[in-house]
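Annotators were shown the component list below and the corresponding predicted structure, then asked to write short factual statements about the assembly.
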Amino acid sequence: MMEDDIKARLNQCGLKATPQRMRVYAAMCQLGHASADALYHFLGGDRCTMSLATIYNVLGSLTDAGLLVQRPSFSNKMFFDVNTTPHGHLYLQDTHEIRDFIDAPLRREVEARIRAQLPAGLVLDRVEIQVVCHAGHETTSEKEAQ
Ligand SMILES: [Zn+2]
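Structure shown to annotators:
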């Protein structure tokens, strides 16, 4: 995404395009998904001109403005996502990589089944589909075990 596009997106969402917001959102667009820690390291870690606390604050304001979504992850860390539409995720546990997993019919099916079985007094907010996997080839015995 070009600098002008990033500026326009921030402005559309009612945010002033400060250098910090521009830098964090541009990095998030490059990464797709990242925790605050991962983003801090991506931006240079100790050499980053923003502190981790500042990065948290900027991520928070981008999330409040609707430019990012915060999602729970397997590694007990929240991660931020530039794709704000409902979708699932593949988590590669060997590399900690997070990839989008898009299957709207599956998502609707899971939501409908959960909604039908939800105990009285509970309201479904959303379903997060997260699949744990690793790089490699599935063996026959692993397929049979499912
Ligand atoms: Zn995503």
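Statements collected:
1. The radius of gyration is 18 Å.
2. Helices lie at 3-12, 19-31, 36-42, 52-64, 104-117, 140-144.
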